Amino acid sequence: MSVKTWGLANKLTSICLGTISESGGPRCCKRVSYLTIEQTLPFIKEKLGLEIPGSGKIRCGDHERNKECLRAACPYYVENQDE
Question: What is the number of domains present in the chain?
């Protein structure tokens, strides 16, 4: 019920939805989740002063299980990334 936290939650939601909308393509829960995490970590650091370490480069190897996978057009597609 706090004005500040209500505003921050809605601001972060808008940032995440904007990023998701720019990613294009059909559904992929993993891509949407990864994009959201990448937007959320710096937001939390900037707005709340909390640093939550990420796990490094995100790689998704589940393209065989998702027939709508964007493959090479997805930033998390494992074959797009160097080891």
Answer: 1
